[in-house]
């Protein structure tokens, strides 16, 4: 993630946690906070009882160790009777609560540009309060848009693509397409030209629905697109009309114009079937051109139904902050859950989410402060930056502020882990008032549950955020191929590093991978490749039967299974832990196997690391690494160490800097019990961040290994030279 995005999550913590020493003030409060829970714990101390969350189950298909959610005997397929498709779920949910808040958007009051010391210009915005549309109003808008699509020539045999950042109109267009059984192709707004052309041509899209700012991107590739007839853009600042004439012979319309067209020419809905393809979702992909995953309506409603059972008391009183890409399965699944449960969804962005975000004008509230959400989703990279920001500010303040934070953190940690179980309630209240309330205020102060997915979340970050935010983190495991519906940790599970039991819509089976040394008969925990079966497993890859047959299987009972390539192990309570990945295994010169993903996960917790890619060459006995260091951490070290430099790239090339980072990686690796050959023998520090726009990481901030290897081929070769 770029610095501008990273600062979205670092700077608010740096500002908010750093209240003056005097704010913590009265020593008596600290004494009360420390002594009372200790005294109570003597009387109330207890041991948390284990809870069975997943149980073995007999299933068909390839032999392995299979588990289902302990709360069900049969897989969950729908959230309620009649909601068998996304179109039906949407209509029933809207009609059940027509006057309730549904979609919220902030109005832009004004914009301005500020110039940084290096001459670069940055846009700052002043945003107003959230303006809401009700469930009934959104149903009407989606219906009008659907009728407008028919008037433009759409029918069940055509496809529309949504090529846009996350916003309310994205979801309205999405649901509008379904009301006429039009399959939606979802494409990341950050996708490169080649992948964009490939996605649109392969699916023979006839209409592109996009942000006005992306019209320029479409204009550049008009001659390469074979089937486009219509472009519908979301109105923003009026500049979109300047590009309308450069889009060839396509019909260009604003979103509101299509709504008006449909309102004047209403068409009865033509609703889809459960097994019909709702979405062709193009993954950002870590290798080559993106693959289009065919997601059925049944897949979406099954995941929505299952996740609803995991989040306690989910309903109309909840407010969800939406800012992650809707073209990613994680965000689309989360918003589908909110729709099914009747929650309000307020839209924001990574650049405006907090009061001190990079795009927020000073004195203006960020999205979280204005919305005060109770629920939000995050990818691990964001939560890692939140943790880093809090720690930095606490270190900077020092004194009583640092001491109180550290004492409070340790006490809350002890409470969560069971040492002071009886004192948890009082302890939580006391430390919230004294310390953690300031941290929680950054995200509005009302967060009660966080969803995390898209990549593995480190145990340290999970525990840290759980304690500082005072809310459980539901860490999920899923893939585009399972519409995010595989496993999800439950709200009362205080363990870390695991992804919970199977969701109630799925079975998870571990199939032995003998080459890697993982067997479903392993003791004390079965291990093997994670294979997901059930209602969330998608139909396969669009126009790619060979790849589909490679990773999707149908067993003798008719159940569909997806072979993930991930390696997992089941704990005795039925919770899954992801421990490796087949594709990341490299055999070194002397026969040792190294798991690149495992090593990267361990080393990414080092304080200097912003991004890391470990590389292993089978003709050598050691591995190397490309590291994007954290600017602030490295610059602070340079100042203390007296290292002089003009620009950041000079600091990265300095031999003393490289040695410092490498020594830190070695310490972190040893603490994580990595073998000597797993700790990079040489590293290269890179000054430029890896962003989705650069094509070096996915939208979920997973590294694109092949692209990185190609771009930094010379650097990798030099480290092996």
Automatic annotation (TrEMBL):
Tell me which UniProt keywords the record has, alphabetically.
Answer: Membrane, Transmembrane, Transmembrane helix
Query: Which reactions are catalysed by this chain?
Result: a long-chain fatty acid + ATP + CoA = a long-chain fatty acyl-CoA + AMP + diphosphate
Source organism superkingdom:
Eukaryota
Tell me the Pfam families matching this sequence. Answer: AMP-binding
Pathway stated in the Swiss-Prot or TrEMBL entry: Lipid metabolism; fatty acid metabolism
Q: Which organism is it from?
A: Dipteronia dyeriana
Work out whether the entry's keyword set contains Transmembrane helix: yes
Required cofactor names = Mg(2+)
One Gene Ontology term, aspect cellular component: membrane
| Name of the protein this chain belongs to | AMP-dependent synthetase/ligase domain-containing protein
